[in-house]
Amino acid sequence: MEFTEFTGKSVDDALTKASIQLGAASDQLDYEVIEAGSNGILGFGSRNAVIRARKKVEDPVIFETSTFEEPENKAVVDSDQTPSDIAKEFLTDVFDKMGLEVSIDTTFDDIESVLSIELSGPEMGIIIGKRGQTLDSLQYLTNLAVNRKSTTYIRVKMDTEDYRRRRTATLENLAHNVAYKVKRTRRPAALEAMNPYERRIIHYALQDDDAVVTHSEGEEPYRHVVIALKRK
After folding, report:
1. Is residue 151 located within the same domain as residue 187?
2. Strand (E) positions, 36-112?
3. What is the pLDDT of residues 115-129, one digit of tens each?
């Protein structure tokens, strides 16, 4: 994986942004500091910190069949902390490093093992990111943090300003509009690259359309949906 450059008010801030964009905890990143940054004097001459980072490339782990033992269930690291406590602590630290004021509301369904997180604040556009990429990365990292201290798997769902519902509606409209174009021109159409969740929305939106078929092509992160006429 190639290195990507990140900037921030400090090295920690830049590293936090790298963790969010790359979807990995900071200890799972290889990075080098290009510019440490400076506050300058009275705000003048300040420079942002710059780092280059990528996910660590881990060597495969090989187990000897004669010595391998079935792992025991994960132990609870801190039984006094609820999933909501862990998520709030993790996200508060992230947003503090990013210099953002964000309110965090959580609801935990212990029957379904689902932790719902609603974020609110004046700069939610930054939290959502391009096509929801930053929001997705935050959800992924929070999921890692919560399940690291849980004996059972907990699903984390994160949203802000009703973004998930609005994005789903946008993608469903896109799917139907492109399907109409495919039927009119009788030519297949390739959509922009999307994450697996968004590709599923496209597939589901057109699964009952008898005239078109959908499939995914390409490798991540450039994998995309193609809509074509059904063969008769």
Report:
1. no
2. 49-55, 103-109
3. 999 999 998 998 998
